[in-house]
Specification:
The chain is α+β, with helices and mostly antiparallel strands. The chain contains three helices and six strands. The strands form two sheets. The protein has a four-stranded antiparallel sheet with strand order 3-4-5-6. Strands 1-2 form a two-stranded antiparallel ribbon. The chain is elongated, with a radius of gyration of 16 Å.
Length: about 100
């Protein structure tokens, strides 16, 4: 038996997947803000959008403010501006936990 982590509704012959808790509302309120994000090449990213149907956030890599990355030469400046997707639970955790 497969465990479903999302709520699925059938509307007009389409499957509509939505997360049904306040995490989405909280994330929408911080769109445009930067956060420390372990999976970003610079360890910092900006929340660009939240897709409530797929449970995915779009993040944009921003420059690193961390001195240690400058000293080690691992800035990944060529990755700034790149966008990637991450699951809602992980981005919510980065902002609010």
């Amino acid at each position: 038996m497969e465990i479903m982590l999302y709520v699925s509704f059938v509307i007009n012959d389409k499957t509509d997947m939505r997360y049904s808790d306040s995490k989405l509302e909280e994330l929408v309120s911080v769109i445009g803000n930067e956060v420390s994000e372990n999976f970003s090449p610079t360890l910092r990213a900006k929340l660009v959008s939240v897709n409530e149907y797929s449970g995915v956030c779009t993040m944009e890599v921003v420059p690193s403010p961390y001195v240690s990355m400058v000293q080690m030469g691992t800035l990944n400046e060529d990755k700034v501006g790149m966008r990637y997707e991450a699951p809602v639970y992980r981005i919510w955790n980065a902002f609010f936990f």
